[in-house]
Specification:
The protein has 262 residues and is of the alpha/beta class. The protein has eight helices and eleven strands. 32% of the residues lie in helices and 23% in strands. It binds NADPH dihydro-nicotinamide-adenine-dinucleotide phosphate (NDP) and ligand LZUJQKHR. The ligand O=C(O)C1=N[C@H](C(=O)O)C[C@H](O)C1 binds next to helix 7.
C-alpha cells in the first residue's frame, strides 16, 4: 500500500488528486497540508470516515505522519520549501506545481540525487499535452519560425504556463534560436508581441471558461503547422499523477517530464 499525502489539499488539483487516490486499491490517503483549511479533517473534506486533520505546515505533517509519497500542487513560491523538507526526511516527492524558480529546481534536483530519494516533476501530467510537446520538439527540427499561445482559467497564479516554458525548452533542444529573421514591428502596446524564450514568442490568455489549452504555431513558406492540445477537465491530469505516484519510489533521484516515465 502506498501511503500518500497531498500539499495544497484544499486547492483545485489537490482535492481532485486526493479523491482519485482514495479510489485506488494500492494507495491510501494519510494526510495533507494547506494552511487556510488546517484542522479540518480528511473526513470532512472527502465525506469519508477519517478524523486525520489537515496540517498547517509541512513541518507539522512530517513529524505527525508516516507516508511514502508527497504530492505537491501549490504555488511556485511555496513548493521549494515543501520539497526540501520532504527530501530531508528521505520521502519521495511528486510535483505538479509550476512557476518554480529554475535555480531552485536545479538545487533541489541535486539534493534528491545526492540523497538518492525519488523526486519527480511534470509541468503537465496529461498524456495529450506530453505528446503535443514531443510533436513540437520534432517539428522544431524542420521549421524555425514558431510562437506559442497558451490559454488558461483566470485563477492561474503564473504566466506563462509551465507547459509553455517546457515546450519552448524542448523545442530549443532541436534548434537554438527561432524567428531569427523576423522583422518585428513597433509594439504600440507593451508586450503585444508576447514574451520570448530563445526567440519563441509566448502569449498567455487568462479567461473564465478555459481549463488548460495550448497551440504551438510553426510558420513556413506558404504554410502554417498548428499543434493544439486541450485539457477540457482536470481529470486529464489524473492518470499521469497516478503513474508518477506508483513509479517515484523507484527513481533514486530527480526526473522531470512525464515522457520519462512512460
Ligand atoms: N503539472 C500539471 O499537470 C498541473 C499543474 N498545475 C499547477 O499546480 C499548481 C496548483 O494549481 P491549482 O490547484 O489550480 O491551484 P489552487 O490555487 O486551486 O491550489 C493551490 C492550493 O495550495 C494552497 N497553499 C498555499 N500555500 C500553501 C502552503 N504553504 N502549503 C500547502 N498548501 C498551500 C492554496 O491555499 P490558498 O488558496 O489558501 O492560498 C490552495 O489551496 C499550480 O502551480 C498549477 O500551475 C495545475 C494543473 C495541472
Ligand atoms: O494552472 C493550471 O491550471 C495548469 N498548470 C500547468 C501549467 O502551468 O502548465 C499545467 C496545465 O497547463 C494546467
Amino acid at each position: 500500500m502506498i501511503r500518500v499525502v497531498v500539499s495544497g489539499i484544499g486547492g483545485k488539483m489537490g482535492r481532485m488528486v486526493s479523491e482519485t487516490v482514495l479510489k485506488q486499491h494500492d494507495m491510501k490517503l494519510v494526510g495533507g497540508v494547506d494552511p487556510a483549511i488546517a484542522g479540518k479533517t480528511l473526513g470532512e473534506l472527502f465525506k469519508i470516515d477519517d478524523s486525520t486533520p489537515v496540517s498547517a505546515t509541512i513541518e507539522d505533517l512530517l513529524v505527525k505522519t508516516q507516508f511514502d509519497v508527497l504530492i505537491d500542487f501549490t504555488r511556485g513560491n511555496v513548493a521549494p520549501h515543501t520539497i526540501e523538507k520532504t527530501l530531508e526526511y528521505r520521502r519521495n516527492v511528486v510535483v505538479g506545481t509550476t512557476g518554480i524558480d529554475g535555480k531552485e529546481l536545479d538545487r533541489l534536483g541535486k539534493m534528491a540525487n545526492e540523497l538518492k530519494v525519488g523526486f519527480f516533476l511534470a509541468p503537465n501530467f496529461s498524456l495529450g499535452a506530453v505528446l503535443m510537446m514531443e510533436f513540437a520538439k520534432k517539428a522544431a527540427r524542420y521549421l524555425d519560425h514558431a510562437e506559442i499561445i497558451e490559454l488558461h482559467h483566470n485563477q492561474k497564479a503564473d504566466a506563462p504556463s509551465g507547459t509553455a516554458l517546457r515546450t519552448a525548452y524542448l523545442m530549443s533542444e532541436n534548434l537554438k534560436v527561432f524567428n531569427k529573421d523576423t522583422v518585428q514591428g513597433e509594439e504600440k502596446i507593451k508586450c503585444a508581441l508576447g514574451g520570448e524564450v530563445n526567440g519563441i514568442r509566448i502569449h498567455s490568455v487568462r479567461l473564465p471558461g478555459f481549463v488548460a489549452h495550448q497551440e504551438v504555431l510553426f510558420g513556413g513558406v506558404g504554410e502554417i503547422l498548428t499543434i493544439r492540445h486541450d485539457s477540457l477537465s482536470r481529470e486529464s491530469f489524473m492518470p499521469g499523477v497516478l503513474l508518477a505516484i506508483r513509479k517515484v519510489q523507484g527513481l533514486n533521484g530527480f526526473v522531470i517530464g512525464l515522457e520519462n516515465l512512460l
